[in-house]
Amino acid sequence: MNASSAPAVICTVDVVLLTLQQGELQVALLKRERAPFAGVLALPGGYIHAQEDADAQASAARVLSEKAGLQSPYLEQLATFSGPARDPRGWSLAVAYCALVPPDLLVGARALTLVPVAQLPPLPFDHRAIVDAAVARVRSKSQYSSMPVHLCAEPFTLPQLQAVYEAVLGEPVNKVSFRRKMDELALLEPVPGALQTGGAHRPAQLYRVRAPYRRSLSLSPRGL
User: Fold this and answer.
1) What pLDDT sits at residue 189?
2) pLDDT tens for residues 103-141?
3) Most exposed residue of 4, 26, 137, 213, measured as fewest CB within 10 angstroms of its CB?
4) Given 1.25.40.10, 3.40.50.150, 1.10.10.10, 1.10.287.110, which CATH number is that of 147-213?
5) Where are the domains of the chain?
6) pLDDT tens digits, residue range 133-162?
7) Rounded CA gap, 61 and 63, in Å?
8) HEC states along the chain?
């Protein structure tokens, strides 16, 4: 078989869009509009547009914009999923991405269904494996990086950010160790003159992410 007669490979991107709701890590799903699996909840995804997209990450960003009306503040390539069995239309290759979005950015996002990652419905293709890989990646990297900060709406207090880390990791984090880790990562800056007031405790300083880390990660050689 020569190259001209070889069957075409389906080439797409799929995006695992993660957020926090009610203290749980949740994934955003969309109902598929076309066959195969029309009407079934699936990851946001689509074909790579060779004449339009500069690379696969540009494809993923375009898919989020077109299908969900979102500009993700953090987008990371996850892995490539491929083979003859993952799509009934034929041999396919999907470059999967993980997007982290604070819940306030999802207000008004169109057509998204949020589902706790621990309660996923049956998903088409190999989307369950893609979600599992994304959750494992996020939980692993949260031990030694600033990744969870991309799930936290600014400005925030240190206790609020610690609660986000704990929700992602699924376990409590020692307060002293957490604050030491934030100092090591050097990703936060106080918002001048901004304090959270009210409640039984004294006013708490509000923070935001330093500009160099708003779309990237700060890394530490040690875990929490």
Assistant:
1) 97
2) 988 887 778 999 999 999 999 999 999 999 999 999 999
3) 4
4) 1.10.10.10
5) 3-142, 147-213
6) 999 999 999 999 999 999 999 999 999 999
7) 5
8) CCHHHCCCCEEEEEEEEEEEECCEEEEEEEECCCCCCCCCEECCEEECCCCCCCCHHHHHHHHHHHHHCCCCCEEEEEEEEEECCCCCCCCEEEEEEEEECCHHHHCCCCCCEEEEHHHCCCCCCCHHHHHHHHHHHHHHHHCCECHHHHHCCCCECHHHHHHHHHHHHCCCCCHHHHHHHHHHHCCEEEEEEEEECCCCCCCEEEEEECHHHCCCCCECCCCC
Q: What is the CA radius of gyration of the chain?
A: 19
pLDDT of the residue at 74: 92
